[in-house]
Amino acid sequence: MIGLEAIEKQEVIIRSLFDEYNEKLKSQNTIKVDLIKKLLKKIGKSERRVNTVPGVKKEIIDHINTFSEKKIAELKKIPQLREELIKRTKKQELLKEQDLFRKLDVFINDIIVPDISKEVITNINDKILAYRTIQLKRLTSLREVLVPGHEFLSIFHDSECPLCLQQINSEEVIKTIANRLEEIEQKTKHLIKLKDDIKGIKNELSKLQSSLKTFIEKMKKIENLKEYKKEIASDSKNLEKILQEINKCEKLEDILPIEKMEELFNGIKKILDQIEQKVQNEVNKVELTPEDKEIIDVVKDLTYIEIKLDELTEIEKKFEITQKYQRILKKLNETYSESKKEMIQKIYFKIESDVNNFYLKIHPGEDHKNIQLTVDSKKLGSTNLTVDSYGRDTQDPRAFSSEGHLDSLGVCIFLSFVKHFNSDCKIIVLDDVFTTIDFEHKQNFGQLIKDEFKNYQFIFTTHDKHWFKELSMAFPKSKFINFTNWNLFTGPSIYPYTFYQQKIQDDVNSGNIEYAGIGCRIYLEGLLKKIAELTFTAITYKPKQDYVFNDLYGPVKKKMIEMGQLDQNFQKEINEIYKIFEIKKDYLNFLSHDNPDITGIFIEDLQIIFDIIKRLNKLMLCNCGKYLIYDIKSKILICSKPCKSPTYYGEKLHQEVKEA
């Protein structure tokens, strides 16, 4: 639809954001559930340990025992309890200094470096390359063609292909399409699995990235680990780059960087092992009594619980914010989508009258009516087009309409949009859109343009010479050009179009007797065929209908003289025309064959012949430029199309028709 692209683009952006926040919500919820599981597991161990420590306050046990997902707040006193336990040890000052290392030890153990084998990554890369080779866009487009094709043939069982119009066995084609769809379905399933595998790797690396960033922040408080900070920060940056490359892999634009991943994973493991060793050395510096060791074991558990509680509190905050935006985006997406569909449907209602009116002007009297455009509420950017055909309501036009009907329907919809929404731009380009429409309906279209789009400038292109001729007669004041050839560097070669009559006149003016004679004969043959058709002249039947001058001249002359009785002016004109024809017509036969001796024919003779053909042509034209047709019932010659001021011959009878 004209001007809708920006609106559709905006809807896609909103929907993408909604999907993005949905995924973020799922991810945060997974982290939240995982943290709670870890907490419950650790609390179970801590409870047993606390019971073995003499003199520990009962409130510590109560706080731990009452913990549940809904009672996170009850564990807020954990830091205070942990400090109280440290105070009960004999080396509380030293142990207090080690607190940062104990916390860092928890963070180190939480960092999980993905264990992805080289074989797994190689297998994924092979699949990426395979799918890039089969062209996914082609696969998707093919499915979009096959699904409606299968549906159409399953319903109507046509013996003619709806695309190429060739004769087919619909049952066999249905089976073939079903097999091809199954093949595409399998490839699609494998593709989804491949993308899920890539996404799984990406999620693992994202978790690693998040853990490294948290770890780097915690390291800043410990001076002893300064030497490792730069290296771990560098690994974090390299991991960020790999994640960017994996984003391309999700779109199958690139393969996984197997060497970089392997090198990075090994580097991170090595540096973490070194840091953990350093931390353990610091923690083990203090010699503990058996009683203090039991207390410190509980302190370690409480330290873990405290850290995980902080993480849980943080993820809860993020979850609430994400959920808030997700709800806003959901409402925005629904509202925007519904508003857009309502707006488009109003536009459809606005143009439907013109669509039906235009279509009936091109196809008058045919059993197609009530053309309706309806927004498909289940699909993005999709419209259902229906028409009442042959007594059946709201049918898919592809079921009962030829390709020519579908083409003209498309043009009618396009012109209706232009009329209502493009009134500021009065230029319309139609590039060879009528190749499947027969000549009579093309004539109707020309009349539609004259009636409905008087103030517009049209640019038509066509390969159809007859259609071009009809347009040139319907719009004689237009400019006509000819594309003779085309190449990549210069584009088309454009020349002023010379009409056939002008070519004949040019040959006469230049004294080219042979070409002028051939041109006049072709011009006259075409005109006689047209007159025979319009006046219902009886002509001796020829199976191939390859009628030539001698087949047409006599019967048309006889019919024209008979019609001369309708009107004195017509009779006078026709007698004068045929008087000259009888004298000069043999020249046309003479010049149309290989006759070397043409010295008895002068260029002046051809000018006379050419003028008399034009005179006959003019006699058969209405004031509006359309040909006259013989009305057998009323016995009058009158304009072949509805006309405000028609030319006609047979005045008395015509007056009777008007009065009746």
Descriptive overview:
The protein has 660 residues and is mainly alpha-helical. The protein has 5 domains: 5-113 and 292-335; 118-279, no CATH class; 342-495, 3-Layer(aba) Sandwich (Rossmann fold), CATH 3.40.50.300; 501-620, no CATH class; 628-660, no CATH class. The protein has helices spanning 5-52, 58-65, 78-87, 92-97, 99-110, 118-133, 136-156, 170-219, 226-250, 258-283, 290-362, 397-400, 403-421, 439-452, 465-474, 500-509, 513-535, 549-563, 568-591, 603-619, 651-659, and strands at residues 368-375, 383-389, 392-395, 427-431, 457-461, 481-487, 491-496, 628-631, 636-639, 648-649. It has a 3-stranded antiparallel beta sheet with strand order 1-2-3. Helix 5 packs antiparallel against helix 8, helix 14 runs parallel beside helix 15 and helix 16 packs antiparallel against helix 17. The longest helix has 73 residues, at 290-362.
Q: In the residues, how many domains can be counted?
A: 5
Low-pLDDT residue intervals, each spanning 5 or more residues: 54-61, 652-660
| Strand residue content | 5-15%
Query: Termini separation (Å)?
Result: 48 Å
**Mean pLDDT, all residues:** 81
- Main structural class: mainly alpha
- Biggest β-sheet, characterized? 3 strands, antiparallel
- The count of β-strands is 10
Q: Provide the helix percentage.
A: 55-70%
Shape designation? elongated
Summed up, the helix count is: 21
Radius of gyration: 44 Å
Strand order of the largest sheet: 1-2-3
